[in-house]
User: Fold this.
Amino acid sequence: MTKIHNFSAGPSILPQEAIEASIEGVRNFAGTGLSVLEVSHRSKEFVAVVDETKAILTELMSIPEGYEILFLGGGASTQFLMLAYNFLETKGAYLKTGVWASNAVKEAGLFGEVQVVASSEDKNYNYVPKGYEIPTDANYFHCTSNNTIYGTRMTEFPKSPVPLICDMSSDILSRPVNVSDFGMIYAGAQKNMGPAGVTVVIVKKDLLGKVSRAIPSMMSYEVHIKKETMFNTPPVFPIFAMLQNLKWVKKMGGTTAMQKRAEERAALLYNEIDNNPLFTGTVAPEDRSWMNACFLLTDSGLEEKFNAAWKAAGISGIKGHRSVGGYRASMYNALPLESVEALVNVMKTFNQ
Ligand SMILES: Cc1ncc(COP(=O)(O)O)c(C=O)c1O
Assistant:
């Protein structure tokens, strides 16, 4: 089989050794003679998987005391409403930087007042607003660290007077972050962490229990914490596969090494976008994402030729999101530099 260069926006590339270890677990899980697909989530072998996944994530992100890690179903989209259930008493403040941030705003609006502190909607979300003020009377401030669809990222996080809640779905583990600056971090696993089906929530315990509304059990972080992320059946296989990926991240040198890989990939691709007259970037250069690079052909008449060339080179998944058009190369943790080299080579040569 020829090597496919997988630039999919998510679910997306995973390290081959994580895939192999997952396959082995499907065949024979932890020497039980059973498949990980058919064991109880309460078996001692699977409880050990949950414990190890928490421990390795704690180590990779230097998660301090006082935070809890949950592995939930429902995708990051469920967190848009779940965080409002648990934290929005009177007002939530939001940074609106794209489709996902807008969805978070919309869901929170069902629970109380929502103040959009700043938005980049005026320029089709091609930059990240700066210099905004976070209201001190909000219950929290919500932001999105990396905007998967539009290809922007927050290079730094604001000093917030209220708990900072961040959707890190598309760049978690791609750079070191100071977890203690955040009240809560959440991420759907299917980009940098594992397969689809599990969402990681890292929440500061002492912020919980402050809203006056009744919270349905499945929506309550406190309930999930009390039951050690097993209030209901957790996504067993996605957690197992995520652990295999986290082991790879650790072996490779953790988030510092992931950042170096991300910088190298992004520098190579953006350099080509900037210097090749056949292409143009869609995002303000200072806010460019390291994970999702969006670009257009300067002459749309070359589309067929370019598409044929990258497909012939074994490149997959670079069609842009329908709301931006053009191309989007997603370069998550597991993507080797060699895949970006293959894409850059096509960009250089397809019209010669
Ligand atoms: C930044 C961000 N937030 C949220 C979501 C939604 O995640 P899910 O499909 O897991 O609900 C996505 C999906 O791509 C995303 O990129």
